[in-house]
Amino acid sequence: MCEPGGYSVPHILNPWMEWTEAVDTERALRQWTALADALREAGAAVEVIHNHSRSGAMTFTRDTAVTTAVGQAVVLRNVGRRGDLEPQHVVDWLEADGFGFVEPADDDRLDGGNVVPTADGWLIGLAPGATVGVAQRFGARLAELTGADVHGVPIRNPKFGHLDTAIADLAGRGWLAYRAAFAQPDLRSPAWRPILRDRPVIEVTDAEADALACNVAVVGDAVIGGLTPRLCRSVERLGLTAVPVDLDEFRKAGGGAHCLTLELHPIHLRAARPDDRAVTSASTT
User: Fold this and answer.
1) What's the half-sphere exposure (Cβ side, CA atoms, 13 Å) at 114?
2) Quick check: 223 and 242 in contact, CB under 8 A?
3) Which of 46, 121, 125, 239 could make an SS bond with 148 (beta carbons 3.0 to 4.6 A apart)?
4) CATH number (domain holding residue 50)
5) Distance separating alpha carbons of residues 250 and 226, to the nearest angstrom
6) What is the pTM of this model?
7) Residues 257, 238: contact at Cβ < 8 Å?
């Protein structure tokens, strides 16, 4: 995770952003800290990478890299200033945890929100207007590195142009899904069978999707994020623990629990990172 010091919404970069919605920085820090606490309570070890001094969106660590269990990290190049400032900062930090790095082609830019890990492999979101070749090359590289299944998921609704706002794998026991986001909204279609694999699907309503209910972090049996009471009950019927966390300050930039986290596989974690582990009320810019 990356503390939200400097987090703001200075530019309109996606359909979730509005000029009228200024970020309450103190509230954002409280919500981020509550998410970190919930992750720890679920059994995760939370490591904190300090925010680059001029990269206000870096708190969304999902967009910094894709890490795999085989010790490789594909560092993502983001559009604009993030793409200029973050990659080497992230490489230096992850390299200390033993990751090797795979560089994408110069023109291959793919948002981390369109790379969704599942119990069986990965889903790659194909957003409206996206270059399909980029997703194909990225998916092929993931399949080569991990030997896991990789499936492309075409998206039709530009507001849900990041796949992690529309679907989430619930620890291999079921799914959260917002059907109106997809080019193939019939979840019983043969196109979905290799992905859903007959696991139960909890369908998210328009209002729940708009609150980014699919954008969850899953740690063990805990599903953490902006879950409504109805979704909490549905998740718990799958034998999982639902942990609702309010992250509405981050919704202003189109992000939730999944966007604010990046899994680091335990074999690569340091035994200690004393300068980073403490999460306090003081933000770093």
Assistant:
1) 28
2) yes
3) 121
4) 3.75.10.10
5) 11
6) 0.86
7) no
